[in-house]
Design brief:
Helix content: 40-55%
Order of helices and strands: EEHEHHHEEHEEHHEHEHHHH
Number of strands: 9
Number of helices: 12
């Protein structure tokens, strides 16, 4: 286990092939500020470069996942060098989460609102506690979502529901989130990490290269035509055939034993 990476707004932990990243500002409901965003970008890059990590869990400390953005002091938000694109870059982190090549499970331990929801939908699978609320309420406050909500939300739940949530600042509960596909599982709070770890074990039992290729095929295929997506799927399958893991998968099946994947 590795717990020695220092962060102020996050907690990072590695247990074998699984890394857990916890938003760790519970005193402000894990609101996203420049420090947290910068640390998220940094930890995502560290995960990418760590060859033994095969899965990431993203969650929050306390009883909220993340409820928006940390208020900026007037002397910072109003300064000449903290305007426009600079401000956006300082606060953006969702694309770094989405760029992680291994599967990302988001364990939503409480409300995921505004920027917090933008972080959550950058992952691959979302498990939520039954009392969680979800919303993009930026427009009600006269501002505009800027870390992916207008692009990732319609790809996830469809443009109709995305327009409804964004334009009306509608807040939905966990059961509604499950019904529209915003989350894939809803559990009682005491079972959140148990369910998350069960999912992680299922994913980790499979071939790591195949998991990365499957994630790539889905993520990139959304923006391709069907024919282009099918070609991508076929190309990735060809690449997979040349790996040691593919041979191990076939061999273990024929020999009726558990596979021992090495990620090569």
């Amino acid at each position: 286990r590795e717990d020695n990476i220092p962060y102020h707004s996050l907690h990072y932990r590695q247990d074998g092939p699984m890394a857990t990243v916890t938003l760790s500002r519970p005193e402000i409901s894990n609101r996203v500020g420049p420090e947290m965003a910068a640390e998220l970008r940094d930890v995502c890059q560290a995960v990418q470069e760590h060859e033994t990590i095969r899965l990431v869990v993203l969650t929050g400390a306390g009883n909220q996942f993340s409820v928006g953005r940390e208020p900026m002091p007037e002397n910072v938000a109003g300064s000449p060098d903290y305007q426009g694109s600079d401000r956006l870059r300082n606060l953006q982190a969702a694309s770094a989460i989405a760029a992680i090549q291994v599967p990302v499970i988001v364990a939503i331990n409480g409300d995921a609102m505004d920027h917090g929801l933008e972080l959550a939908i950058a992952g691959d699978i979302r498990v939520a506690v039954s009392n969680a609320k979800f919303g993009v309420t930026d427009l009600a406050g006269g501002v505009f979502p800027w870390d992916g909500a207008t692009q990732r939300l319609p790809r996830l739940i469809g443009p109709g529901w995305a327009r409804d949530m964004i334009l009306t600042s509608r807040i939905i509960d966990a059961e509604q989130a499950l019904a529209v596909g915003l989350v894939s599982r809803v559990v009682d709070s005491e079972r959140l990490m148990e369910e998350t770890l069960t999912l992680a074990e299922i994913i980790l039992a499979g071939g790591p290269i195949a998991a990365r290729y499957a994630k790539e095929a889905v993520s990139q295929g959304i923006d391709l035509t069907l024919d282009q997506g099918l070609r991508l799927e076929a190309d990735l399958n060809v690449l997979l055939q040349s790996t040691t893991d593919r041979a191990e998968g076939l061999g273990s099946f024929l020999e009726k034993r558990p596979p021992k994947y090495t990620g090569t």
